[in-house]
Amino acid sequence: MTVYAYTDGPLGEMLLVGELAEGGRTALRSLSLPGQKGGATVEEGWVRDPAAFEEAVRQLGEYFAGERDSFDLLLAGGGTDFQRRVWAALEEIPYGTTVSYGDVARRVGASGAAVRAVGTAIGRNPLLVVRPCHRVIGADGSLRGYAAGLERKEALLGLEGALA
Length: 164
Prior knowledge:
Layout lengths: L1 E6 L6 E7 L5 E7 L14 E2 L5 H11 L16 H11 L7 E2 H7 L7 H9 L12 E2 L12 H10 L5
Parallel strand pairs: 1-4, 5-6
Antiparallel strand pairs: 1-2, 2-3
Main location: cytoplasm
Subcellular location: Cytoplasm
GO cellular component, one term: cytoplasm
């Protein structure tokens, strides 16, 4: 069953979407921000269940308070094999650091010509903040391509102390 909830945060009201898993846990499938390109929207048949996301909301609160540098949440599957490889590489980028799109391409064994495909996979990351695509920047150090807007990317990197 698909469940959802909203929670407030410093980047705006976040929409959390998940799937109920065995043992009553919720596998987080999506975390969207207002105005996000390609963000989730509530669909007919989904059940609003804020209690299903208590752990995710707690961890997000700790992250935004500067008390958490990684997330320990059950994440739902999804995406193509290539996207899953790219998303796994995002999860390996340490808090407070940045890497280039080319760095991510190398980490997943893609050629230099695949940087655009890597960027597309990063842009389709359904778990903003939790899966830290905001830590990927241009090779020249510029902020590029964040589905929820560059000002939010800058805010997240500033929170993590990753901006010089």
